[in-house]
Each structure stands twice: as C-alpha cells, then as structure tokens.
Amino acid sequence: MILFYKTGIFFYAFFARISSLFNEKARLFVKGRKNWRNTLSEKVDSSARYIWMHCASLGEFEQGRPLIEEVKKQFPDYKIVLTFFSPSGFEIRKNYELADIVMYLPLDTKRNAKDFLNLLKPEKVFFVKYEFWHFYISELKKRNIPLFIVSAIFRENQQFFKNTPWGKWYRKMLFKVEHIFVQSEASAKLLKMAGVDNFSISGDTRFDRVASIAKGFRNFPIVEKFKGNLPLIVAGSTWKPDEELLVEFINQNSEAKMVFAPHEVSEVNINRLIQMLKKPVARFSQIKNSEVENLQVIVIDSIGILSSIYKYGNIAYIGGGFGVGIHNILEAATFGLPVIFGPNHQRFKEAVDLKSEGGAFSINDFYQLKTIMDSLLNDDEALKKASKISKNYVAKNIGSTSLIIKKVFK
C-alpha cells in the first residue's frame, strides 16, 4: 500500500507542475513550496517552543483560529507555525498576525516529513478536520510528538471504514493520533466501530469563532443607511446558479433590499452580476453616501467584510448549494438570521441541524426561493421565530475550544 501512496503523491506533484504552466492556483501551489527548507530554517528560532497547526484551506483555518487565539492568550511562551495545503488558504492568511510562521505544507513524502520536523521540532501539533498525511503522522508518532485532530467529521463512505486493503492501511493512521476531537455522536460511533478509542466529542470550534465575530464586528454606517426601514437580504459567498435565482427575485421585489457578496470578486464576475440587475445598484467600493438610500442592491467587491455585514441583515442566503457544497452559514446564524441555501448541503452538520430545527431552509429552484422569501418577509412572527432558532443554535454550541485546550494542556 505504501508504494501506491508514494506513487499517488508523485503523480499529484507531477500534474501540479504541468498545470502550473497555465493555471494560476496550481502555479501558486508549486511556487509556494520551492526552497521550503531554506525558508523554514531562516524563520525558525532554535530556542523557541513551537506549536504547529495545519489547515487544508481557508475554511479549516477558521476552525483552527479559535485554538490559536486561545493558545496565544493562555500560553504566550509558545510560537505558532501555521501551514496550508491550498493556495486559497495561504494567499489570504499568509500575513495572519497571531502566527509566527505561515507557509505551505511540503508534500507528504518521507524525506519532507523528516526534514520539516527536524527543522521545526514542534511540541504539539494540530491537524484540522480532514487532514490525514501518512508520512507526517508516522514521523510524529515515531518522535512521540502528540498530534491532535480537531473539529473532525467522519462519514461511513470514507476509506477509514472500508474493509479493503487500502481502507485497512489508511485506518492505521487513526491509531497514531494522540487524540481526535470529533464534532458529533455519529462520528464517534464510526470511530468506535473501527476499534478507535482515542477520541472525544467536543463539537465544532467554528461556533466559538463566529461568536467572537459577533462580539467584535465592524460597523458599517453606510450599510445601515442603505437598509433604511426595509428588510435586508444578505447573499453571502454566492456563485452564478445562486445569483441567477436571487437576481430574478430582487428584480421582481420592491419591498426589500439586498447585499450581494459573491464568492468570486474578480472584475469580470462583479460586472456580470451588476449587468443582470434591473434595480438601482452600486459597488460597495464606489458607494456615495448621498445616493445610498436610493439604491436597492449593493455588490461587495472585496473580501473580509461579509461576516460583519450579516449584522445588518434580516435574512441570509448562503451560496454554494448548487455546486459542491454550501459556504459558512454560522457567520449569519450567530446574528440571528434565518438561512436559505441550495440542495447540496447534506455534508454540513450545522445546515442539517438548523434546517431540522426551523432556522434554515433549502431550495431547489426559483419557486421554492420565492415561497420561502415571501413567507419570511411577509410574516413578522415567522421571521422572529426562525431568527431566534438560528441565534440559539449557535449559542448552545459554543465551548469546543475550551474543551480542547483543557484536554491538550491538561
């Protein structure tokens, strides 16, 4: 099995290099890993004590972030090394102020794992949610460096739980981890059935993150002025299929206002979205204070402010549900917004939970979107009820970070 794994890593690297000739993301993936040994050796302080956290991408970073913040608060003697697998995480968070070193994770080879750990010598390691890399995990185990998997979710169709030669080989990684902090009872049950007992149910650290966002949100008086006395729909992290439905709705509606925060903020995409709208619309970066009350739609053309914009909303629509999966619904729910999303949401526990409780709604087409929007906009009691459910759902799930810190640091 190890030969197959090595071969897979080799071909992954090979195709990444080929793709880098014409794909920007692949180019960043390859370029970011060049001369990583020199980069790391220059940045490492040999007298420091390090904690290493690895995240696949931006979403996993948001889950790991509360832990970094708490470690810095309670154990300031530690320095933090933050690694990413994907450019979409690294490029946005490469200047994260609480991390002492931010870099790409070198590809999972035996030599890379040994060299990385020889240079860094971390005392504790956190991998967030899905990240399982054979050589890094094996090398950490050999060196008795404790590895903790946090905010983990397991599903029955994952390789860990298949009785195939590959599945059995893959499952061995779970026994080399010091402790696995899972989000749910269902994940715990799968681990137990596989013979794994080094786990506990701690929930999802993202609840702690969004709760802190709600306390420390940025004020945008211009959005408050734009909203006026009308209800505001905040459409966050939308893709083209989401936007086509939302544009059709707002083009027919004069009794609500809408903020679009598309997932892709390129000039081409922003212009495409604006051209679809038949209502008075402006880019956020170009709004004039004197005209804002006359607008019905604002399009956010930058990143980093959506989580605070939700504060001004009455209803949230979260994009991605007509693609591979929805984006973060908790950032909206923490402010007490009912959440609407597309059909592909089943892999997201918080979406399934909130939908079953009545704080979230899924749609398949424009008719369903219009029906739910009209129901919430025209019935104050229905809106208040769904809002309360959303806010309470976040509030009752706070505390994962504290449980993990207590367990890891005894």
* Average pLDDT for all residues: 94
CATH superfamily of the largest domain: 3-Deoxy-D-manno-octulosonic-acid transferase, N-terminal domain
CATH fold-level label of the largest domain? Rossmann fold
> How far is the N terminus from the C terminus?
36 Å
Pick out the low-confidence regions: none
| Structural category | alpha/beta
Taken as a percent bin, the fraction of beta residues is 15-25%
> Rg from C-alpha positions?
23 Å
Defining traits:
2 domains; 46% helix; Rossmann fold; 7-stranded parallel sheet; single chain; 19 helices; 410 residues; alpha/beta
Record the SSE blueprint.
Blueprint (H helix, E strand, L loop, with lengths): L1 H18 L4 H8 L4 H8 L5 E7 L2 H17 L3 E7 L2 H7 L7 E4 L5 H11 L3 E5 L5 H9 L4 E6 L12 H7 L7 E4 L2 H9 L5 E3 L4 H10 L5 H7 L4 E7 L1 H12 L5 E6 L4 H10 L4 E3 L13 E3 L6 H4 L5 E4 L11 H4 L5 E3 L7 H9 L2 E3 L3 H13 L1 H16 L4 H9 L2
Parallel strand pairs: 1-2, 1-4, 2-3, 4-5, 5-6, 6-7, 8-9, 8-12, 9-11, 10-11, 12-13, 13-14
